[in-house]
Amino acid sequence: MSVFLVRPARPDDSSLILFLLKQLAAYEKLPITITEEDIAFDFFGLRPLIECELAFEDETPVGLVTYYWTYATFRAARRLYLEDLFVLPDFRGRGYGKALLIHLAKKGRAAGAARLEWQVLDWNAPAIRFYQSIGAHPHEGWFTYWLEGDALKKLGET
Q1: Do the beta carbons of residue 46 and residue 39 sit within 8 Å?
Q2: What CA–CA distance (Å, rounded) separates 123 from 108?
Q3: Which helix (H) or strand (E) holds 130?
Q4: Helix (H) or strand (E) holding 25
Q5: pTM over 0.70
Q6: How many Cβ atoms from other residues are within 10 Å of residue 46's Cβ?
Q7: DSSP codes, 76-109
Q8: Which residues are known to be catalytic?
Q9: Which of 64, 83, 69 is nearest to 17 (CA)?
Q10: pLDDT in tens, 77-136
């Protein structure tokens, strides 16, 4: 019988994190520019910006979850923002994705988080079905916006 384990990532896991993030980016058909050096600095540097937990089946890495804290000022409430949730294709269907979410929900509740939130690509029907099956729902009435590239540069130079 296999043993499933989730543990916090360590600095010596940078190459594993990069591998898993590249697999996720390929699945999502998105470009990826993060490097091991970025991971070392942003995940494990003096002021980490993001946290990461790694999932293993016995000794085999099978997935990861990355997250960071946000704050809702109107509610004076901590929120845990799930940036990445990924399980390698060969290990899907074993409950590992749900186990990672449970792990993160417990971590959030222990720290007083009022909400766990994330985004999903509109074409990712398997993920949407999974999220709905655990009681998650879309944030109706809100759109996600961002500034990047020339638009960010132009606004920053105003």
Answers
A1: no
A2: 28
A3: helix 125-133
A4: helix 14-28
A5: yes
A6: 5
A7: TEEEEEEEEEEE-GGGTTSSHHHHHHHHHHHHHH
A8: 131
A9: 64
A10: 999 999 999 999 999 999 999 999 999 999 999 999 999 999 999 999 999 999 999 999
